[in-house]
Amino acid sequence: MTPPLDLSRRQFLTAASVTAAAALLAGCAPGTVPGSNATTLQFWHLLSGGDGVTMSQLLDTANAAQSEYRIRPTVLAWGTPYYTKLAMAGAGGRAPDVAIMHATRTVGWAPGGLLDTWDLDRLADLGVDASTFPKPIWEKGFVGENMYSIALDAHPFVAMFNTDICDAAGVLDSDGRLQETSSPDEFLDQLRAIGGQAEGHALSYGYLGDGAQMWRLFYTFYSQHGTAMELPAGGKAVIDKDAAVESLTLMRTLLDGEIALAQADYGSAVAEFATGKSGMLFTGVWELRTMQAAELPLDATMIPTLFGTPAVYADSHSFVLPHQTDADPEKRDLTYRFVADMLQGSFGWAEAGHIPAFLPVTESPEYADLIPQAHYAEAAQHVVYDPTAWFTGSGSNFQGEFGAAVQGVLLSGDDPAAAIDRFEARVNTLLRQPNPADPEGTFAS
Q1: pTM for this prediction
Q2: pLDDT digits (tens, 9 = 90+) for 176-212
Q3: Torsion sign over Cα 264, 422, 441, 22
Q4: 397, 404, 403: which is closest to 431 by C-alpha?
Q5: CA dist., res. 216 & res. 223, Å (int)
Q6: CATH fourth-level superfamily of 157-312+388-431
Q7: Where are the domains of the chain?
Q8: In 10 A of CB 144, how many CB atoms?
Q9: Which of 2-6, 206-210, 430-434, 435-439 is the least confident region?
C-alpha cells in the first residue's frame, strides 16, 4: 500500500524555501538542445517498470518525429515522493513544463494555484476536444469550469481469465468470450464452475494490507448500483449504506476459501493466476504484460455488471501544466504540441494494456485487432473515479482509510455495516480538515 500524500499547511506554505532542491530535480538545462534548433521541454512522470519502459519508447518516438522540441524526462518515485516533489517544485518556481498526474489528484491541487489551466481553443486547433474522448474521461479533466488535466488513458480494474480453464468449465460463449452474468448469484455459479476445472481457485484477488485493492473492487460494485459517493467540502459524506453493505458482503462471499483464497495479498494473487492455477484474476490493466510474458491462454473483460449499472473503477494518467509564474509562450505552445502528439501516438500505450483516452486510437482497425485490449475497451465509457475531494485519488490516504475500516470484514467476518460506519466517520473527519493547498476554503465545492 503506497503511503499517502500528507502535505501539511506548514509544509505547503514553506515549500518555496526548497527552491534549491527543486532546481536540482528540474535540472538547469538551457531551453534549446545543443547543436539544434529544438526547444527542450522538461517532463516529469512517475511511471516505472514496464510502464516506464513504454513511456520512454513513446517519448523517443515523439522526439524523432519532429524537430521543434525535445523532451527531457525526469522520473520520480510513485506516490508520495512524486507528488510532494512536484508540489515543492511549483511552489519554488522551478516547475517542469508538463507532468503526469493521476486525474483523481488534480482537484486537490487546482485551488492553490499549483496547476495552470489548459486552453480549450488551442487544444481544439490540434484536434483534441470533447468529441475525441469518452465523456466521463473528458469531464474528469475539469475542476469547476476549467480544464486542468488531459487524460492519456484510463486504467480500469478488469477481469482477466484463463481461456483454457474457462473453456473446460463451459463458461465461454460461441466467440470464446466469457458468458455474461447479470447478478451476484449468476456470477457465483460461474465461478464455482471455473473452480471445478482449476488447480487452485476460481478467482485470484489479493487485498491484504492493500486499501487500494479493496477500494477498486468495492467501488466497482458500489457504483454498479447506480449511485455515487459524495464528499462535500466541509460537510458530511453521502454514502448509500445499503449499496455499500451489499457490495462489501459480495466481496466477503467471494473470499470463501473455495472461490478465492480467503487471505491473499496482491503478489500471491498475481502469482497464482500467472502460473495457470486459477481461472480468473481481478486486477488492473497494468498487469497485462506480466500475464502475456507468462504465456497464458488469456483474455480479459470488464468486471461483470452484477447490480444493474455498467461501472468499473479506474483512474487516468493525465497531462498537467504545473504552475509557472512567467511561462514562456513558445515553450507553452510546444507543450500543447507535445501532448497532442502523445495522444495521437498512444497506440504503444495500448499495447501495454492501458486504454488510450484518445478515441481515434481505440476506434482504429489496428486497435480492434489488439486482443485482449479490444475486449475491455468499452470500460472507458463506464469508468468511475474516486469521489471528488482534496484527499482522494490514487496514492492518497483515502483508499488506505477504506482498507483499514473494512479489511476485518474480508479477513475475519466483521459486520459490514459497522465497517461502513467506521469508514464514514473517518471520511467525515477528513472533510472537516482544510485542503492544504486551499486552507481558507475559497475553492470549496
Answers
A1: 0.90
A2: 999 999 999 999 999 999 999 999 999 999 999 999 9
A3: negative
A4: 397
A5: 11
A6: Periplasmic binding protein-like II (3.40.190.10)
A7: 9-152+316-344, 157-312+388-431
A8: 12
A9: 2-6
